[in-house]
Every structure is written in structure tokens, then in C-alpha cells.
Design goal:
The protein is 43% helix and 8% strand. By secondary structure, it is of the alpha+beta class. It has a single domain, classed as Alpha-Beta Plaits (2-Layer Sandwich), CATH 3.30.70. The chain is globular, with a radius of gyration of 22 Å.
Length: 398
């Protein structure tokens, strides 16, 4: 079956949420420790995360979740053409300059553009319109993310050729339930891969960054904050202590990990300001939009404490020795998601392969299929999860 054209999957004029996956060529461990040679490339994970944080502050794309693995990268992103449309011409030109700088400083950062540099873009209406479109385009976002990492890695390895597989996987997320499942699926990647045993140790994931940010907030208030559940604060403090004693920031020789100058970020992305918040309170919604991200919009209708409980319980289901009954505090969350615990785990398990192009409830998939070029792959899986009594059953052979 031919691949679906991106122009059918994407609607550049409307905000949408997409789960993107890019794999290293031949699925080699080019961003981790190579099991055959023992070479360590962990610093590339850090470079990818820093590049993500940099692009979140430049493009019209919200970063909802991510996981950088040894041989592939997951990103859950939301394009925001509505936000880019409100930006002044000079701001659009400056952001494009920062992403593709013709000149750099001695440290590798984008040089400050001159007024004439920006005028070359703003005085060309066709060029300006094209750049404005690209700033919220998911394909351009993925290109801006992976190309600098590939070029720098080839220079490090003194070789040429592909670093990433030719075409990234893209899955459109249609509703809040599918988004919550996608975020949990992405954050649990290190657990499923056996890289770490606990969620609190899963570095280079969005949930780890959110935990570290909670730890920083607790330290700023010199004690547990009233706005943070005590259990979440305790988890965050424990995560920070483990991170400080970790050797993950060193390569195989024991030397500090290198930071790629082309990553575009001069500060280690240890704060979650560049990530879209899970849920915005009424007070936070009125605050100014942080410059570290594209917009002030949440992800899912649940606070971080609820998300952590959901993530923790789901992660335990992958371990037969740690499975247990559904905690009572998860019942309201599952009710909001219109799912039971067993159905939720069925949705999470092998999420990417069950929903190849679009993911959502049966009604969301049916509505999406009515669009020009729309199809309904994954509809039977969705019915089996959300409406098991109405799902089609295969007849046994006569």
C-alpha cells in the first residue's frame, strides 16, 4: 500500500497534534551505547533535547512530549499556524535567521542579524509568506530537529551518509484520550526498552523534565509548596538526588559529555518551560506566554499529580511482579477518559502499530475519514477498545 502523502495527513491551516518518530539508519544505536562496539554516544541524546528546547522557542510548534532513545526519537508536537499568523514580519524574519543563521559567533550560536539581513526577508512578500508557513509546518520542524544532529554526528565519526532513516513516522492524534495515551506511551519508552526500571529515572523524556521542574519549584519555596502534592514533591526531590549522582553525563572514557554547538541551545534544558503544560489553571492562563515556547495552551485535562499516578500504574502493568488492582484515585481519571483500566492498557500497548496514521475514539476516526483523502485504519482496534460489544468479530472457520 502506498504511503499517505503528508499533505493529506497535515492541515497546515489548522492546529493539530502529531506523534512523530525518527529512527537512526538500520536502527543502529547511534545515540546511545553500541552493544557490539561499546562506543558511547549518549551526548547526542542531550544534544537532541537541547535542539528541541531551542526550536520550541523559535517555531510555531508546541512540544507536548518527547523521548530520546538510543536508536530513535519520539516527539508529540502541535502545530500553531494561528500563533505564527499573529507575529510581526520582523519577528518572523528574526526567528528564521536564528534557525538558519548565515553567520555564527565563535561559540557556534547564531550571530545577531543586521537590519539589512531582516529586510531581505520582510521586503520579499512571497519569501516572507513561505517562511511564515514553514514556521508551523511539522515536516519543517522535524527537518530542523534532526539535520543538525546528523551533520555534527557525521563530523564526529569522520564519515558521510545517512544518519536517520529517510522518512519519519507520523501519526495524527484526534482527541484528548488518544493524546493522554500517546504521552504515556512516549514517556514509558525507556521502561519498555529496559533502559531503566522506574519512571523517575527515565532521563531524556518529558516526564523527567517535568519532575525536575517541580523539584526546582519546591527548592525555590524552601520546602514543600502548597500547590504541589506532597507525594509529587517527594518524587521530584528523589529524582534530582539520583540525577546529581548519575554518570549519564559522561561518555565511555569518563570525560564530560560533549555539547554539540549546532544544537542551537546554550543552556542545558533542565526546566520544563519549553514544554507545553499538561493542564493550565485559570490563573496560569492569564500569565504572559513564556518565550521558551510557542503558546500558552495545555495538553490534557489532568494535573501532573494525576498524570503521574496514571503513568506509574500503567508502567507497572508491564511488570508481572508489580501488577496490582486499579487504585481508587485513578477511577475519576479513567471516567474522564471514557475507559476502564483493562481497556486503557490495551490502548497503550503497541499504540503506534495499532494506529498507523490516526489515533482516537471510533467517532473521531470516522469524522477524520470523511475529509478529502481520509481513511479509517485502526477503526476496528478503536472499537475493540472503546466499544468492545460493537467491535466486529472474526468468524471461526467452518
Amino acid at each position: 500500500m502506498p504511503r499517505l502523502p503528508r499533505k493529506v495527513l497535515f492541515d497546515e491551516s489548522e492546529p493539530g497534534i502529531y506523534h512523530c518518530v525518527n529512527r537512526c539508519v538500520r536502527r543502529a544505536f547511534l545515540c546511545g551505547t553500541d552493544p557490539s562496539t561499546g562506543e558511547c554516544f549518549e551526548h547526542r541524546k542531550r544534544a537532541l533535547q537541547e535542539r528541541l528546547a531551542f526550536l520550541a522557542g523559535q517555531l510555531g510548534v508546541d512540544i507536548l512530549g518527547f523521548a530520546v532513545m538510543s536508536n530513535h526519537t519520539h516527539v508529540v508536537a502541535r502545530n500553531r499556524p494561528d500563533v505564527v499568523a499573529t507575529r510581526f514580519d520582523a519577528e518572523v524574519a528574526r526567528r528564521w535567521w536564528n534557525i538558519f543563521p548565515p553567520r555564527r559567533t565563535s561559540e557556534g550560536a547564531p550571530a545577531e542579524p543586521r537590519e539589512t539581513d531582516l529586510l531581505m526577508i520582510t521586503l520579499n512578500p512571497e519569501r516572507l509568506a513561505e517562511i511564515r508557513r514553514r514556521l508551523s509546518n511539522i515536516s519543517w520542524f522535524m527537518r530542523c530537529l534532526v539535520e543538525p544532529i546528523a551533520r555534527q554526528a557525521n563530523r564526529e565519526d569522520k564519515c558521510s551518509g545517512r544518519f536517520w532513516q529517510g522518512r519519519y513516522f507520523c501519526q495524527k492524534i484526534l482527541d484528548d484520550t488518544a493524546l493522554a495515551a500517546c504521552l504515556v506511551y512516549v514517556d514509558l519508552n525507556p521502561i519498555r526498552a529496559g533502559i531503566c526500571e522506574t519512571r523517575a529515572n527515565s532521563q531524556y523524556t518529558s516526564v523527567y523534565e517535568r519532575l525536575m521542574a517541580l523539584k526546582a519549584r519546591a527548592q525555590e519555596t524552601e520546602g514543600p509548596s502548597d500547590s504541589l502534592p506532597p507525594a509529587v514533591t517527594a518524587i521530584a526531590v528523589n529524582v534530582a538526588a539520583q540525577a546529581e549522582s548519575s554518570d549519564d553525563a559522561k561518555d565511555a572514557t569518563g570525560t564530560p559529555a560533549k555539547v554539540m554547538p549546532e544544537s542551537g541551545a546554550s543552556v542545558v534544558a533542565s526546566c520544563d518551560a519549553w514544554l507545553s503544560p499538561l493542564e493550565l489553571t485559570a490563573a496560569e492562563a492569564n500569565d504572559p506566554v513564556p518565550t521558551a515556547r510557542a503558546s500558552h495552551r495545555g495538553c490534557v485535562p489532568m494535573a501532573f499529580a494525576e498524570y503521574w499516578q496514571l503513568l506509574d500504574w500503567t508502567g507497572r502493568q508491564y511488570r508481572t511482579d508489580k501488577r496490582g488492582v486499579i487504585p481508587s484515585q485513578l477511577a475519576p481519571i479513567f471516567e474522564r477518559l471514557s475507559l476502564g483500566g483493562e481497556s486503557w492498557f490495551k490502548l497503550i500497548h503497541d499504540f503506534r502499530r495499532k494506529f498507523r496514521r490516526t489515533a482516537g475514539k471510533p467517532e473521531s476516526l470516522t469524522k477524520e475519514a470523511q475529509k478529502p483523502g481520509g481513511r479509517m485504519p485502526g477503526l476496528n482496534h478503536s472499537r475493540d477498545i472503546f466499544n468492545p460489544e460493537s467491535a466486529p468479530r472474526r468468524q471461526p472457520p467452518a
